[in-house]
Amino acid sequence: MPTAGSTCPMSGSGPCSPSAIITACGSACRWSWSLKNWAWMKKGIRSWPINSDPSKRRGPKEMKSVEELRGLRKVYVGGLGRVRFQRYENQEYYDFASQALLNCLDEAEMEWKEIQAAFCGNVYAGTGKGHQVIAEVGLTGIPIINMEQACSSSSAAFRMAYLMVATEIYDVVAVLGFEKMGRGLLASTAFKPWELALGFNVQPANYAQGVVRYMETYGATEEDLARVVVLERKNANLNPYARWYQCGEVTLEEVMNSRVVAAPVRLMHAAAMVDGAVAIILCSRDKLKSNIARSRKIEVAASVHTTGIYGEESVLFPAQTNLVKEGVRQAWEISGYGPEDMDVIQVYEAMAPAFLTDIEEMGFCKPGEAPRLLKEGYFDINGKLPANTDGGLVGCGHPLGATGARQIAELITQLRGAAGPRQVEKAKIGIAHSSGAGPNAVFTILKRVD
Predict the structure, then answer these.
(1) What was the pLDDT predicted at 322?
(2) Which residues contact 172 (CB under 8 A, 6 or more apart)?
(3) C-alpha span between 285 and 93 (Å, rounded)
(4) What is the pLDDT of residues 129-176, one digit of tens each?
(5) Which structural domains are found in the chain, ordered by start?
(6) What is the DSSP letter of 379?
(7) Which of 104, 151, 365, 396 is catalytic?
(8) What is the mean pLDDT of the chain?
(9) Annotated catalytic, 151?
């Protein structure tokens, strides 16, 4: 194990300091090693020696061919229900989550007895969490599947519910994403003890590493980062389900003067920790009941889940760009659409700077172009490619288990033409991307079919 003051094994320069473990050692070193891989790194090898060809590490890309996937039964949104993302100090998670589910049933004009299975996304509530929520509505003996995929938990739950209906195992399935967030620092089991000891679980610092590299590579500025917050707080101010609803817009100066958390990441770049819940019903076309579900049909065009590919660039932190690029590639291929077809998008940004990189990695612009496009209003509600029209994670807040479903809910709302003052004109198709520790990335494409 290297010690403070020793020569950096990655860049070949030195000395290294303890702070370099979290921030960086120069611009070349990220110090993201595995102890058991240390012998290889001393030789200057940055990744696993086995299967260095990425194509040999990926395994099957699809369980079925694109033609077979497109031939599955069409799946539609039968209902949507949610509660505002905020602190529910006097409620348990099953209180406000069951309310979101009841709201969903009301909108769908369905009774709970019509639901044949439920997939529940949550991170922190513990054993039997979905069962506890549904017990408030009524246990009917149906399968209740609890899913944890970190921040992408409920979008992964949405995908599984979609597959159940598409493969005709069930006709009507409920998706539920919910979270009651703790206070202060949150414990994580996504890191090994030695990684925790070295501080690799400090998310602002992890984000800061990537942001510094992005700024050095493409010339992005702190003003570019702040502009993301300005956009998302502006959108959230119009969204009655967002944490920052009717809290006023913010200025570049306010963001840039907020406290530094891990340079260049600032306090106002971070998504607020709030509670929240979203419920969605997926069903076959013949099971649609409500007027809005039948008159403004929303179809699932694609749902894709990808995970990390170890051995590329870093052992501790797999190359996230490959994770995102591979997932979105599959989503485009399965749906038959491309970036140019999207009317509205949801990108993942637990810290505001990720808004820029996510847009680029999903193929909506070239690397380094997002800051300029953002400044020109390209991603505004009335821009050429409206992004995070509900405020995103920064504007809505981030109850981990509910965030993925919240992103999908905004697509549904936009495609139905029901977003009020934040409505995107003539929105017919959109994509949502959520990421989660693991790592995981989930992509959902929805389209309106009249």
Answers:
(1) 79
(2) 78, 110, 114, 115, 116, 165, 281, 282, 283, 284, 287
(3) 32
(4) 999 999 999 999 999 999 999 999 999 999 999 999 999 999 999 999
(5) 1-61 (no CATH), 62-450 (3.40.47.10)
(6) T
(7) 151
(8) 87
(9) yes
